[in-house]
């Protein structure tokens, strides 16, 4: 098994004892991403989700992957009432390839953001 830590300076640094992503044998496991800067600026949920997806993209690129390589996402939301807006932004990052996914409402997220998304990407 080969394991490689992936880091992008364009995405938020880890705020705990974890890596932005870890690649193992052609599979990239990307830790949950949040939008610190967008959230602090009083952004809309759409702005926050857009920044989260861009953060994922920066990490994917750093590992040599793209959104088209994503096979699974997990979305954590603070308020399921924002589902439609989050879903619209999320969907705009994919063309004809939609990964498997689940969306879970949670009581609280790190730094009190409203959305966090993690993903798994695969390249053969």
Q: Secondary-structure map with pairings?
A:
Elements lengths: L2 E4 L14 E4 L2 E7 L2 H5 L4 H18 L7 E8 L5 H9 L8 E6 L9 E8 L2
Parallel strand pairs: 4-5
Antiparallel strand pairs: 1-2, 2-3, 3-6, 4-6
Helix pairs in contact: 2-3
Family: Belongs to the RutC family.
Protein name: RidA family protein
Instruction: State the helix count.
Output: 3
Percent helix: 25-40%
Task: Return the string of H and E elements.
Answer: EEEHHEHEE
Class by SSE composition = alpha+beta
Characterize the biggest β-sheet.
6 strands, mixed
Textual characterization of the structure:
The protein is of the alpha+beta class. The chain has one domain: RutC-like (60s Ribosomal Protein L30, Chain: A, 2-Layer Sandwich). The protein is 26% helix and 30% strand. The protein has helices at residues 36-40, 45-62, 83-91; strands spanning 3-6, 21-24, 27-33, 70-77, 100-105, 115-122. It has a 6-stranded mixed sheet, covered by helices on one side. Strand 4 (70-77), helix 3 (83-91) and strand 5 (100-105) form a beta-alpha-beta unit. The longest helix is centred in the middle third of the chain and has 18 residues, at 45-62. It is globular. The chain starts with a strand and ends with a strand. The model has no long low-confidence stretch (mean pLDDT 94). Pfam families: Ribonuc_L-PSP (PF01042). This is RidA family protein. InterPro entries: RidA, RutC-like_sf, YjgF/YER057c/UK114.
């Amino acid at each position: 098994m080969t394991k490689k830590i992936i880091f992008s300076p364009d995405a938020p640094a880890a705020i705990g004892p974890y890596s932005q992503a870890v690649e193992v044998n052609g599979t990239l496991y990307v830790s949950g991403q949040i939008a610190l800067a967008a959230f602090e600026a009083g952004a809309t949920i759409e702005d926050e989700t857009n920044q989260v997806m861009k953060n994922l993209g920066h990490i994917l690129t750093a590992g040599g992957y793209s959104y088209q390589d994503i096979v699974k996402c997990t979305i954590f939301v603070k308020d399921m009432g924002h589902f439609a807006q989050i879903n619209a932004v999320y969907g705009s990052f994919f063309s004809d390839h939609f990964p498997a996914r689940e969306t879970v409402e949670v009581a609280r997220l790190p730094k009190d953001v409203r959305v966090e998304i993690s993903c798994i990407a695969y390249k053969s």
